[in-house]
Amino acid sequence: MTFLNDLIEPFVRFQFMRNSLLAIILVGSVCATIGVYVVLRRMAFIGDALAHTVLPGIVFAYFNGISLFIGAVVAGLLTAFGIGWLSRRDTLREDTAIGIMFTFMFALGILLMSTARSFRDFTHILFGNILGVTPSDLTLIAIVAVIVLGTLALFHKEFELTSFDPIHAQVIGLRADRLRYGLLILLALTVVTAIQAVGVVLTSAMLVTPAATASLLTNRLPRMMLIAVGVAISSGVIGLYASYRYNVASGAAIVLACTLFFGLAWLGRILMRRLQRA
Amino acid sequence: MALFPMTNANGARLFYSHRHFAEPVAGSAALAIQDLCVNRPNENVLALDHISLHVPIGARVALVGPNGAGKSTLLKTVAGLLPIRSGSLRIYGLPVGACHHRVAYLPQRGEIDWRFPINLRRLVMTGRYVHMGWLRKPSTEDWQVVDAMIDRLGLTGLTDRQIGQLSGGQQQRALLARALAQGADLILLDEPTAAVDVETQAVISELLADLQREGKTLVVATHNLERLEADFDSVLYLRDGCEVPPPEGAYVGAPIGKTAFQHLL
Question: With an 8 Å Cβ cutoff, are B113 and A164 in contact?
Answer without folding.
Answer: yes
